[in-house]
Fold each of these.
Amino acid sequence: MHIPDGFLSNSVTLAAWAASAGGIGYSLKKASLEMKDRTIPLMGITAAFLFSAQMVNFPIGGGTSGHLLGGALAAILLGPFAGSVTLACVLVFQCLLFQDGGITALGANIFNMALGGTLGGYAVFRTVMFVFRSDGGTLIAAALASWFSVVFASLLCAVEIGFSGVSPLGIVVPAMAGIHGVIGLGEAAISVAVLSFVMKARPDLVYLKPVRAEGGP
């Protein structure tokens, strides 16, 4: 899903950079208002985990592999805005140190994954949490949010590629959605495993845990 240099048209590249700069700037402002003493250290730990975990690929058949994106998981642990900033930092380091995604396309990759995937996954997680108000419901919400975050980010990527004239939308959109729908299953499994451990060891680290009180017992 990491777009390399030369894939996007100049207009799409500039639009993505503008949207990413605005989105991350807004996220920084909102995150700073919510930050507690534990937030910055937890952001660092989460970033280190995501950076390492994204280096591990799992096979999904047909010679294709996937890896953890982590946007939904970051939002669940840190909140949507701090999660977006954290994943954006991971993407920057991946781009500069490992050439995972192009420098010119970094704005698009941040927009797709750090903003679209993280905020979209958080929206699904919060919505499902109002329906399932239990620890088991939290894991269900995390699984659905994680799957959605991957598919949604891939769709944003597909639209950018389509509008850049690299591939027709009718081909790239279903192709990206199909393969990332499978990758999303791995994302959901990993996120649930990590969240299960965190909920047992340090349930106070789950950002949305208190939301259950808003809708009742």
Note: The two ends are 40 Å apart (CA to CA).
Amino acid sequence: MEYFVIKSKEKAEELCRIIRHSSLPFKFAIQEILPTRSIESNDYYWGFIVTPVANHTGHTTDEIHEIFKRMFNFKLDLRYNKRTRKMIWYVGAASTAGLDEKEIWEYIEKCRIEAWHTLEMTLLLPNEVWTNKLDFSKSLKTI
């Protein structure tokens, strides 16, 4: 079995050549390689999602993080146990550290929706500013 990470046109052409010369039938899978979770998305999650929910509920940030992990990053996985030489089911909340940038933002959106739905909290999106009243004293400038 051959695995490729396609980062150049030459590698893509090599993969096409292998496919053309392979006997049918064969399996083929494509998996996107997305950027890993950024520091900015991690800071946003802890500062604008977990911390406000923890402050609102009286729980610690670690407790809220664990709750969100159990709700939205729950994994059911088969793993091989070397000691017993059997496949066993792993059930539990997986770490969010392995999420890529797309996955972490999907996870964050689920957390925001849960906070709004359950706690009636509106959590800020990046670059949003909350104000408790609208200020109409300034006139809009027209172009």
Note: The chain is about 45% helix and 10% strand.
